[in-house]
Amino acid sequence: MEQQEQFTTRLGFILTAAGSAIGLGAIWKFPYIAGQNGGGAFLIIFILFTIILGLPLLLAEFTIGRSAQRDAISSFKRIAPGTKWYYIGILGVITCFILLSFYSVIGGWIISYLLKAITGGLNGLDSQQYASLFEQTIANPVTSLVVQLVFILLTIIVVAKGLQKGIERASSIMMPALAILFIILVIRSVTLDGASTGIAFLLEPDFSKVTSKTILEAMGQSFFTLSIGVSVMITYSAYLPKHQSLPKSAFSIVGMNIAIVLLAGLAIFPAVFSFGLSPDAGPVLLFHVLPTIFSQLPFGMAFFVAFLIIFLFAALTSAFSMLEIIVSVIAKGDQAKRSKAAWIIGIAIFIFGIPSALSYGLLNDFTIFNKSFFDLADFTVSNILMPLGSLLMAVFVSFKMKKSALYEEIKRGSNISQFIFQLWFILIRYVAPILIIAVMLDVLGVW
User: Fold this and answer.
1) Which domains can be identified in the chain, with CATH numbers?
2) Which of 205, 245, 372, 404 could form a disulfide linkage to 413, CB 3.0–4.6 angstroms apart?
3) pTM of the model
C-alpha cells in the first residue's frame, strides 16, 4: 500500500526534514563541543565532514525512502525482499525510541526554564545561583517528570494529526520563526562590548589546537546534527513526490543546518566572551552560562526567552521525526491507526524515559557501566546505534541496491550529471564506511 499522504510542497518537505536535523545537536550540543575543541578550527572540520560524509548519507536515505515509498522497515523489505536488510529499519526504530526517551528529558528542561523566565523566576540571580537552580531543577523528580510529560504530549498531539495537518504545518511555522528569532539574537550578541573576541573564536581557526580527538568529534557531530543513521530521512522522503529533486533537497537541508550552526555560534560565543566566561562549559552552557549573561543585559530576559523558544522549537521538530518513524511503521499509511499509535507509543516512550528523567535526582547514585541512565542512553545512541545505522545504510545503498536504479532515482526531478553521481557513489561505498568505522573505534576506545 502506497503512502496515503505526501508533503504538499517541496519547501514543506525541506523545512520538516531540516527541522528534524536542526535539533539539540545543532543548537545545544554543537556550541559546547566547539567550545571544548577550539572554536573556528572545529567549525571548519565539521563543515567539511558534513559535506563529504553527512550530505552523501542524507542523499542515500532519501533514495531508499522515495524509491520504496514505504515506512523505515517496509522500505528495505521492498527493495531487498527475502533478506534481513530490514533489520536496519528495526535498528532505526529502536534508536529513535531510546533517543526520544532521553531527548524528551532535555525538552522538559527547556519548558521548565521557559516557564521560569516568563514568570520572573530567573530574575536577579548571580552565576552561582543559576548553577544551583539548574541542579535543583534536574534533581526535582516531580518537576522533571511533569515537564518531560508535557514535552512528550506536545509531540504526540502534532504527530497524531498526520503529516500535512500536523508535522508539516507545525514545522512550516516553527522553522521560519526559529530563523527570525535567531537573527534577532545574533544581532544583539555581536553588538555587545568585547563581542569581537567571540566572533574571532568562532570564525578565525587556530589549527594548532586541532588534535585527533577534534577531528573525530567533528566527524561524529556531522551526522548527529543531520539525523542520519536512524531511518528518519527514509521515512520523510517516502512522503516525497517523485518529481521533486532529491539532490536539491539534500543540499538545502545541509545548507540550512550549517547556517543554524553558524547562527548558534554567533549567538552564544560573542556573549560568552563579552562577559569573560569560558566557552568550554559543557552541556550546562545553555542553562547556566547563558542565563548569567542575559540577566546582565538590558531586556536580557526577553532575549533569553527568545533563545529558549528557539531551543524548544528545534527540540520539538526533531522529536516529531523520532515519533513519526515509529508511528509510520505501525500505521503503514492507515490514517485511522495513526492517532492511536501516536498516543500509545508516545506514552510508552515517556515511561521508558522515566529513569533518565530521574538520573540526576532519585536515581543519582544508580549507575550502569559507571553511567547514569541518561548518560548510558545518550552514549548508546550517539556513539553506537547512530554510527552503526549510518554504516549499514551506506553498505546497503552501495552494495545491495542496483547502481542503475540509484542513478535513475536520484536523477528524477534533477539534472545531476553522471560525474556527480559517480563521486557520490564513491563517497558512499568507500569513504563514508571508513570514516564511520574510525569514529566508532575511537569512541569505543579501540585506539
Assistant:
1) 10-443 (1.20.1740.10)
2) 245
3) 0.89
